[in-house]
Every structure is written in structure tokens, then in C-alpha cells.
Fold:
Amino acid sequence: MTPRGSRAYRPPMNEDWLAVIVGLTLLALVLVGAVPGGVIP
Structure:
């Protein structure tokens, strides 16, 4: 058994949630007009 403090640091969110947040942010920027739609494939 490993003690609680010796575990590797695990971020509170996994990569899937990070990808969702980044995607929604890019979508919002395109819809607002801050980023032209042709920039994002």
C-alpha cells in the first residue's frame, strides 16, 4: 500500500474535459467573430 502523500499529482480534470472546454472556447470565439472561421479546420 502506498501512503496518500506519495501518489503522483493528478489534476482535478482529465484530458477529455480539457478538450471540451478548449473546443467550446474556440467555438465561442468564432461565433463572436474574434477568430475567422477559416483559421480553424
